[in-house]
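Late entry, adenosine-5'-diphosphate complex.
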Amino acid sequence: MTRLDPNHAIFPGSFDPPTLGHLDLIERALERFELVTLAVGAHPTKSGLLDPDEREQLLRTMTAELASSERLEFMQLSGLLVDGCRDSNAGTVLRGLRNGTDFEYESQMAATNRSMEPGVDTLYLGASPGHAHLSSTLVRQIFAMGGDITELVPETVASFLASRR
Ligand code: ADP
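Prediction complete; structure with ligand written out below:
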C-alpha cells in the first residue's frame, strides 16, 4: 500500500464563490505544505451561483500571482473526498474553522473520512482576525440583493461577478 503524502494537503470546498477567507487559507496552507490541491466540490444542500468550471477558473486566476502558486494544483470533486485524496495522493485534508458550528460539522466529517481512509487526516486553520464572518453564502446573498461585495472577495472574483449582473 502506498502511503498518502501528509505534506500534500487537499483543500476541498464549494468555493461558490471563492472569498478572501478562502484566499487567506490558501496562502497559509502554502506556507505549511509542499503541495496544496484546491478541490472544487458540489455541495448537495446549498443552492449554487457558479458552475464548477467557473469556480475552478476563479480559484486559478485569484491565486496566479501568489509567490508559491507553482505548488498549487486544482481538481473537481464529483465523488467522495477520500477518493480525491487517493487519486491525488494527498494525505492531509485542510479545512477552515470560523466558529463552533464549523467545528461541529467538521469534526464529524473528519472522523467519517478517517474511518473510510485511515491514511487521511484532517487539519484545521482558524479564520484570520477579521475574516471569521466571511462566507460564500453571505457573498451570494449580498450579491443577489445588489449589494457591494468588493470587501469580501478577491478583485478578480468581484469583477467576474460584476460582469454577470
Ligand atoms: P463547504 O461547502 O465545503 O463548506 P466552502 O467553500 O463554504 O465549502 O468552505 C470551504 C472551507 O473553507 C471550509 O472549511 C470553510 O470552513 C473554510 N472557510 C470558508 N470561509 C472561511 C473564512 N472566512 N475563514 C476561514 N475558513 C473559511
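The pocket of adenosine-5'-diphosphate is lined by residues 13-15, 19, 21-22, 25, 43, 95-96, 98, 102, 127, 131, 134-136 (CB under 6 Å). Will revisit in the morning.
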